[in-house]
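Encode chain A's predicted structure.
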Amino acid sequence: MATISGGIMERCDLSIIIASYNTKQLLQGCLQSIYRNTPGITFEVIVVDDGSKDGSPEMVRQFFPAARLICNERNLKYVRANNVGLRAAAGRYGLLLNSDVKVMSGAFTTLVHFMDEHPDIAAAGPKLINPDGSLQQCIRNFTGVFPMICQTLNLHKLWPNNPITNRYYCTNIDYDRTQVVPHIGTTAFIIRRQTWETFGLLDERFEQFFGDFSYCCMLGQHNQKICYVSEAVVMHYGSQSINQSGIKQIRVLHKALRKFYDIYYAPHHLLALRLVVRIGIRIREFFKVLEFRVSRDKRVITGPGAPPPNCS
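Encoded structure for chain A:
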């Protein structure tokens, strides 16, 4: 169950959906940037508050009365909260947006115009930048289990520019060029209404992690195109909600990793390989918990983590 406030908008160009959990200050900055920097299109903002205790709903009601506020009575987690917003959306497009971002001038206008001009594109994402203006890598490749295991073991840090994790991170991508990509994160992710009405919403078998991977993988299996749009820019702080609850989130992440493997890879593998992979994920979880306990840095996710892009 959920409580809903704010007017229901007639069909518009874009429904901006923000699933928020205890990120009051970031959410306020995010909303300000949307209303200041989204000219030339009709849009609605849907804030899906996922049980925040920090006054986020009250802030939205006070300062952003034009936004539609949906308050979940319990914490549904990231994937389900975004689906709540998509089901309520009136827009020709839905845009999933993290609360820890600031929208640069015209970013969403550019995305809408791009989708209008390319009806063969099912979904797309913008260029992400860090607060210091540097590029944040947001494109990944479905490279199979071994490269993913190497990535989780930080091989790209121990062996820079190795060919195994470079494929996963798409380090040869030119981030200054708009192009079709295999996967892009849902930090700011525009979806054509026809896409989610035809192929479905985010996979609710995943709560928080791997929801984006799962959705992009599903679209790829249906020969649907996903695009990276370099002309649209969004600043992303990164993983503010996730980093609130340490070890619990490490365990949730690895549970999702096991589930992603079981759904998309395990059916194609022999039993012996399945066993090896699952043991590997368990070992990784153990060391990540150990690392968290002894480290001064208590962030579960510290940032994009990818090696510098090799752009020409």
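The first strand starts at residue 2 and ends at 5.
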